[in-house]
Fold this sequence. Notes:
- This protein is 44% helix and 14% strand.
- It contains 13 helices and 13 strands.
- The protein has an eight-stranded mixed sheet, with helices on both faces. Strands 7-8-9 form a three-stranded antiparallel sheet. It has a two-stranded antiparallel sheet with strand order 10-11.
- The chain has helices at 2-28, 38-54, 109-115, 141-155, 168-180, 205-212, 215-222, 240-250, 252-268, 271-284, 292-304, 349-352, 378-397; strands spanning 70-74, 78-82, 93-97, 120-126, 160-164, 189-193, 224-225, 236-238, 290-291, 314-315, 318-319, 329-335, 361-366.
- The chain folds into two domains: 2-56 and 259-287, no CATH class; 70-207 and 291-397, Rossmann fold (3-Layer(aba) Sandwich), CATH 3.40.50.
- The longest helix is centred in the first third of the chain and has 27 residues, at 2-28.
- It is α/β, with parallel strands linked by helices.
- Helix 2 runs antiparallel to helix 9 (252-268) and helix 9 packs antiparallel against helix 10.
Amino acid sequence: MLYHAYELTHAALAPMKALCEWSNAVNDTGLNPWAMTPQGRVADAACRWFDGLTRRYGRPDWDVGDGAPDVVAETYFCELARFRHRGRTKKPKVLLVAPLSGHYPTLLRGTAKTLIKDFDVYVTDWRDARMVPAALGEFGFDDYVKTILGFLRKLGPDVHVVAVCQPAVPVLVAVAHMARLNDPAQPRSMVLMGGPMDTRINPSAANDLAESRDIEWFERNVISRVPAPHPGAMRRVYPGFVQLSGFLYMNLERHVGAHLDYFNHLVVGDGDSAAQHKTFYEEFNAVMDLPAAFFLETVERVFQRHELPRGEMVHDGLAVEPQAIKKTRLMTVEGGRDDICPPGQTLAVHDLCSGLRKNQKHNLLHPAVGHYGVFNGRRWRAEIAPEVKKFMMAAADA
Length: 398
């Protein structure tokens, strides 16, 4: 019923939203003299503010390279996309593994824009679960690992893999599985950025929540079925709007303040500040649904049972043995101010990958960045990305 209540709320707000859109359109023409008065500016700001809060945001564009990325492989739940780059010479291949989370993979736009300068970049472009027909079956944690395995084998042994946040665990599982099988397509290197390798270390508020409830609680309270007329009608999902609510709640005071500032910027005519706010929240509010099986299995296996650090992870009938990794170099990146995956949680993977020599492993802790800053923003471009590039280039030449 959760999803149905969400849809009914949007339907109930439709007349008011239509009125606000009409008012904005009239004021944008410059033909409404009342819009220039103090009262008119307040009314216009209120309409734009309401529209921003209640709009259903669609999938953002990648806007990376030259045109839309090319799809080179696909599954029901994911496309392997390659970014176009004019004048492309032969560059090392990088598989950028985006989180399958509430936000679209385009959240890694800044990551891809930086990497494309020196690498031939491919990305896991996950599909919104509400758009995948229920008849195509479930998608769980092991299906995620199999998707990564398939893409790594397609790209060949010279690829480097970069996992941002949540996919760090399934990427390590995939690489360890390939190492155990002595798969010739083992990647040259893997870079794990802000990933929950061992959430028992320096746990965050989100980690505490995951452990304070049993998995049945999550299934009862956050899982819903997609309503008609969406293509994925009747599929069980973790709705994106529920995850967005969690993101907002974690920093509620900051988000409330940002929206109040936005309203004031509109009233006084500070267009630049208002545009910056709008750009950020158009990306932040664009959310997608997750397959229920993947979400629940990730919570249970990664955040509750801690299967990987305890040596209990199994994939495709085989124990996952990170110590079997000997050919794939390892780099971890952490943010000192990361409140999603605090320092130490990603670094823990170095002890698990005991088969690698010391000179095959590298950790970068940037004390001044939070979770988002690990892979996006000024410090990512100027201080973190050069270290990542240096590491992968060294691995390519090894």
